[in-house]
Amino acid sequence: MQAEDAELDAFRKGVHCAALLEAWPQPWRLDHRESTRNALKYRRGTGEILIVNHEGRGWWDPQGAAKGDVFDLVQYLDPNLNFGQVRRELRRVVGAVPAFPEISFGAGETGPGMPVPLRWGRRRRLHHGSPVWNYLTATRHLPGDVLDAAAEADVLREGPYGSAWFAHRGDGGAVTHVEIRGRVFKGSLRGGTKTLFRLPGAASPCRRLAIAEAPIDALSLAAIENIRADTLYSATGGGMGPATLRLIEHLLRRLAPLPGACVAGASDANPAGERYAARHAELAAAAGVPFERLRPPIGTDWNDVLQIGGEVGK
After folding, report:
1. Is residue 177 within 8 Å of residue 194, measured between CB atoms?
2. How do beta strands 164-169 and 175-181 pair?
3. Domain extents in the chain
């Protein structure tokens, strides 16, 4: 029994989840551009994503609720394996070093050591006629009143080279993460923690929570709906990590007692979007809040709908 316990402890300390993914028969590949030292994004096939965290000792599925340690990861990758077979798989990779240390995460990933809130605070507020304004109005077809509302809520600022910066804020209002979109660049500031991008309607409190994937999609839905006063337009930035889930659950607890409360799952019209919407529905059901699926009727996302000129559909 002691030898068995020692081996299990060796697995916990000596197996890096990233090394396991890279050595799997259908290997996963690191998405370097969207990874940080503390959150390694691995992809496989079409739409499969896993995040390795806790210095390689943990992982989670940003498109679902699965997470855990190396033992859970093996059974996630092959649910047919019993625990003895899981141990055999882990023996193959004890002490194995993942490929990612060969890739340099340079100082530029967080700027000159500057925290995300400070970098955000140094960016200029959105103003009419700027390169960012022109990109969002001419290329993305976002109307000026929606951009003015986003600027007023201080969730949209101007980055370098005509890029738009979208802020995720925690429950206390602090900036926790910044997504970046431009004509030729898509990414985010390194070092932050995704929570939610949020654009509130005029009513307080809002009785409807619309959850899109990207901030531009949330703003596009707001434009299509003429910024419904009762709606908090939000975006998760794709997959929902622990901080995002905690914030959504917190918002739902506040929403639940309100008459006419509703959650609108406004994720993309594709398989990943359907998985996100199913997760939104689970969260709403757990909080006792009615749920509706808002599916883009044309194109893939709400910005497609805005550009093509469609109507809101379910």
Report:
1. yes
2. antiparallel
3. 2-102, 116-308
